[in-house]
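Question (not urgent): is this output format expected?
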Amino acid sequence: MATNPEAAGTPLLAGLNAVSNGDSKASIRYADIGINLSDQIFRGVYHGKKAHDDDLQNVVQRALEAGVRKMMVTGSDLTESKNAIKLAEDFPGLCYATVGVHPCSAMSFTNHADGPEALLQELETLAQKSRNAGTATAFGEIGLDYDRLHYCDKETQLIYFAKQLDLAISLQMPLFLHSRAAAPDFERLLRERLDHLPKRGCVHSFTGTLEEMQNLVAMGFDIGINGCSMKTGENLAVVRAVPLERLQLETDGPWCEMRPSHASAQFLKDAPPEMMPKAVKKEKWRGDAMVKGRNEPCGIVLVAHAVARIKGVSTEEVCGQ
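Got this back:
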């Protein structure tokens, strides 16, 4: 299915025009700073198998109707970074991209046919070109993940996190960061370069401790909050303590949805049922419904609602900030 909003007569074109003209049901505007919109699951493909029609256009339309006005599409390796940029080109003014290699994909440097330096050069060229074109706004998703060392060993992650940080410094782009069970090394590598990172960036999908959050905020970084950031009581205490001016909202869809089993569920009890579209199993897919278990950017409304209740402020204040 074509996703170019300039394709005449598409429902998406009408939706984008309505937004630009101020015609929207949503009274609050949202920015989803972490959405894996290039994932094939939004094309109806699950684990390599086609389950239903390509419904990316429906997903984007639901986001618009919910009040989402900006989405930063995550680049997790060279290919996905290119795919994210393509979406930013297809949905100008709505989607923006990040460029980088996720720690769990860091083996792609050593496995690159022409060697690690060649891949670093390709990333630099892509980031520079897309930054200048206004389609890429951050360098990432880069960082460390010691929870999933079966994807990539610690030493390789450390080497290429450092090299990508240095690349971001040369490009002077803000960072889109990932940290799991690696706070000491993660903070050390950032501190060593802090004077050369004036634009700082965001540590997304944050699930760390209160002390880790405070250390990152003290260094000038923002904290990205999604459903996975509010699973436990300890998580909620961290969210409550994040300075509002340093807090960013995200879905990290198609993952990290808000679940009834999470500690955050208590803060959604007063959420009106109509806040979210109906969801059906993928086997019963239809274009006007979400797919159960597949998080979408329209889910940002639940993230914002829970964050506001946890912090004891209005949703308007959270989103306005």
